[in-house]
TrEMBL record:
One of its GO terms (molecular function) is oxidoreductase activity. GO terms for cellular component: cytosol. Its cofactor is FMN. Transmembrane segments: none annotated. The keyword DNA-binding does not apply. Keywords: Flavoprotein, FMN. Residues 1-145 form the NADPH-dependent FMN reductase-like domain. It comes from Pseudidiomarina maritima. InterPro entries: Flavoprotein-like_sf (IPR029039), FMN_Rdtase-like_dom (IPR005025), NAD(P)H-dep_reductase (IPR050712). The keyword Heme does not apply. This is NAD(P)H-dependent FMN reductase.
Length: 170
């Protein structure tokens, strides 16, 4: 099985980028092949039907869709902006659903998130769950939430919980 790990912040010191790598570390130790997808590769013009009519779907989004299609399982690590999903991630997801084939259909997806706050991106994950259900992926009934996130809490974050998700269907 191959695990695609997406993160929704391209900020250099991103806590979610660090959580993305921490999850990969645990999954690789569990013998899983991981694709830690660079968040900068999600960057696309804000979706606009006129842009799409003139230019089609951006090539980096087509590559993202291929990575989604090829993955056996997917983890999405989302930051929380004003209690919801940040635009980088939402926009990339919206674009992927403009392709002839929606790559998310039937995909097993686990949601994760880190924030320095006490709720640890839970509200963003709740919104993301609704979005993922709308695009027909199967969302695991568990969130990997890293609250009061910092370099230290992420380094010691109990990502072992991910092993149950990885085992399903083995
Ligand atoms: C935030 N942040 C934030 N945190 C949180 O726990 N709940 C929230 O609703 C928000 N809202 C919010 C809005 C905006 C516009 C910004 C820029 C930030 C703080 C956020 O969790 C923090 O900046 C994280 O460090 C962002 O994730 P990365 O970039 O570190 O991965």
């Amino acid at each position: 099985m191959s695990l695609l790990i997406l993160a929704g912040s391209s900020r250099q010191a991103s806590l979610n980028g660090k959580l993305q790598k921490r999850i990969a570390e645990v999954a690789e130790r569990d013998g899983r092949a991981c694709y830690v997808y660079p968040a900068a590769e999600l960057d696309a013009p804000i979706y606009n039907g006129d842009y799409e009519d003139e230019n089609g779907v951006p090539s980096n989004i087509q590559k993202l869709a291929t990575a989604i299609s090829e993955a056996t399982k997917i983890v999405i690590v989302t930051p929380e902006y004003n209690s919801s999903v940040p635009p980088l991630l939402k926009n990339a997801i919206d674009w992927t659903t403009r392709l002839e084939q929606n790559p998310w259909v039937g995909k097993n997806v686990l949601l994760a998130g880190a924030s320095p706050g006490r709720i640890g991106a839970m509200r963003a994950m709740t919104h993301l769950m609704v979005i993922m259900a709308a695009i027909k992926s199967y969302v695991a009934p568990m969130f990997l939430s890293c609250a009061q996130a910092s370099d230290d809490t992420i380094a010691s974050f109990d990502a072992e919980q991910i092993k149950g998700f990885l085992k399903q269907g083995d």
